[in-house]
Design brief:
472 residues; Heat Shock Protein 90; 3 domains; 4-stranded antiparallel β-sheet; 11 helices; 60% helix; rod-shaped; Sig_transdc_His_kin-like_C; transmembrane; EC 2.7.13.3; protein dimerization activity; HAMP_dom
Amino acid sequence: MRSHERDPCTDAGKASEPDGRSGRLSLRLRINLMIAGLMLVFIAVVLATQILATRKSVLEETRASNSVAVRLLSAFISPDDVQSNEVLRATLQRLGRVRSTEIVLRDALGQVVYSSPPSTYKAGRSAPRWYARLVSPAPIEEGFILRDGALSLQSNASRAVLDGWDDTKRLLLLGLASLLLVQPLVLWLVGRATQPLREIVVGLESMERGAYHTRLPKLPSKESDTIGQAFNRMAQAIEDNIDARREAAEATVNLRRSRELANLVELRMEDERRQIARELHDETSQSVTAIHSLALSLSRRELLDEEARRVAGTIAAAAGHLHGVVHEMIPRLRPLALDNLGLADAVQNQIDDWRMQHEGLRIEGCVEDLPEELDERVTLAAFRLFQEACSNALRHAQASHIDVRMATDGDSLVVQVRDDGIGLPDDWRSSRGYGLRGMRERVQTLGGELAIERRHPRGTRVSARLPLKVSV
């Protein structure tokens, strides 16, 4: 197993930066922002709950304080009270300040005789106005009509609001401190959780650069390890596929070279056959003909004794037989008509020879639409296919009717030979005979196609498609 290691500090820095290629944030940063956002939402919910609780608390305290003050003063004041403002003011001064309540005493002219002293609790401080507006209840006012003035009570929740503000501020600071302390821990945990993903990304980048031997190690979590195993299987499949393609390419090159070599060998062999056929026709055949003529002439002379004439007759007969064998060999080696007259005439000459050699054989040939200048290799391959297919039908299939067709079809030369013989044997595909294998190799060397199949109810059909233009 091969793995790729990277600097975690570098990875952490890159993970927190936006992905420059796609313009999107990294997964690690998005998870961190999501967790931070959830924490901020939680803090906001807690603060909202605190503000609602403070509002309710301030309202209850204000009502309670105002109620206590009203009952307390009611104990001192009654409608029939004849106390003077001075006596009542002295009583209020001894009472002092009542929490969350402002007490004001006025005379008959409306002048303030007494007001509650300022609160000493958290003196000099007050809550922000926006906060006070959120939690402060509507003012509560109560009053007493006196004989020579009036006494009024009005709620004042500033100290309770300030207490609520202090509690809210402490809660806010605690939440922010928790966020600042927890966020680095969350960042570290998310980094550890996404580390396998970074290793997978590194592996993919290596694959992109062509390092198909890359393999991922066993990853910590179940999900990431499943992805890692799938990655390794994919990498192995790609590597196997590349190896197979490389081997196929090498095999293709070797096959092309083998075909080129086979083509050169075939051309060389045909050249040698052509020369041998020429020598047999021009030299050997004429010499045998001369020997046959001389021996025949000697066998007819009366001056020779009987034994000499018999020997001369034997020589003449042997020379005649040799002449026939030579003339049968010449078409098999290289039909001279193929060089002198062309493919169509060479095929027709061969058909005429077979008709004379095989009495009762019905062989038909049709060669048409051939180009004027046909590649020599294509010409030779077409003739050899025709020759081999017909020879097989005559020697092995016991055919009485053979049909030969040659014609161009687009950029191909189509050769077809059909017979009514006994057909192919059951094991013909596994046969190691040179004839069928030689035909197939000859066609493949030129880049053509060969089909050999049974005919119904009997017979065989050999079809070949050869390209008119053959690359070197």
